[in-house]
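Worked example 3. Consider a protein that binds adenosine-5'-triphosphate.
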Amino acid sequence: MAATWSHEPHKVLKFRPGDRVADIDTDSSPGFSGDRADAETVLAERTERYAELQEMLYANGKSGRDQRSVLLVLQGMDTAGKGGIVKHVVGAGNPMGLRYTGFGVPTEEERSHHYLWRIRKALPPGGHIGVFDRSHYEEVLVVRVHNLVPPDVWEQRYDEINAFERELVDAGTTVVKVAMFVSLDEQKRRLAERLERPDKYWKYNPGDIDERKLWPAYQEAYQAVLDRTSTDYAPWFVVPCDKKWYNRLAVTELLIWALKGLEMTWPPADFDVQAEQKKLAAS
Ligand code: ATP
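Given these inputs, the predicted complex is written out as C-alpha cells:
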C-alpha cells in the first residue's frame, strides 16, 4: 500500500505564531512519509476526489441552492510552482467552475483605483473555485521590497487585508492561502532549466535574476505577511516547494479539506425522476 499522510496537511502546514520563514526546510515533505512514486499514486486518487467535490460545489451554485465559494490564494517567489498548481491541481477540476486570475504589475487603470479594486473584480462567483496566481499580497511583498509606496502606506495594508478577508469569509467564501517556498539554489536550477529549453523560454523573465538579489528582503516581507495576516478565519499554509510532487499533493489535500468543510451534498432533482424515466422510455 502506498505511504500516506501521517499528519493532516491542514494541520501540519498551518502557520503557527513564532514560525520563522528562515527555518523552513524547502526540501521537506511535512506529514507525508512516502517518496515521489508513492505521492504519484496517492495524487491520482486524490485528484479524482478533488474533482468530484469541486463539481459538487459548481452543481450547487448552478442549482441556486448554495452560493458559497472557495478562493485559493497562491503566493511564492518565481519558480516556486504556482503555475504547476494551477495546471495540475486546480486544472484537474471542471473548468466551468473555475475562475483563474493572475496578478501582474497593475495597469494604469488599475493603478487609478484602490489596490483591492482589481482583486474584488476577480473574486469567484457562487459555486466557483477562484484561483489567485499572486494576489493582494503583492501589495505588501513586491511593493514593500521595492519601496513602491512609502512605509506608512504599506504598513496599514496588513490590517486592511485582514478586514477584507473577514468580509469575504462572512459572505461565504472559504479562503485558502498557500505560501510556497523554494530555496535559492532550487530556484537557480529551475531558472537554468528555463534557459536551456526552448519550450521554457516563455516562462523566463530576465528581471527574475534581479529579484534573487533581494531574497533577504523578500524573506522579511513574507515573514511579516505570515505574522500579521494569518488569522483564524483565513490562515496561511506554508508549503515547502523544492519537491514539486509534494506541493501538488499538499495543495490538493488543502482544497479537499476546504471543500469537505462545506458539507455539501448533490443537489436533489427538481423534477419527478420516475415520471421523467417513464417519459424518456416512451419517447
Ligand atoms: P510570474 O512571475 O508570476 O510567473 P509572469 O512572469 O508571467 O508571472 P506577470 O504575471 O505578468 O509575469 O507579472 C508578475 C509580476 O508582477 C511579478 O514580478 C509581481 O511581483 C508583479 N506584481 C504583481 N502585483 C504587483 C503590484 N501590485 N505591484 C507591483 N508589481 C506587481
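Take a moment to read the result before moving on. The pocket of adenosine-5'-triphosphate is lined by residues 78, 102-106, 134, 138-139, 142-143, 205 (CB under 6 Å). The longest strand covers residues 173-181.
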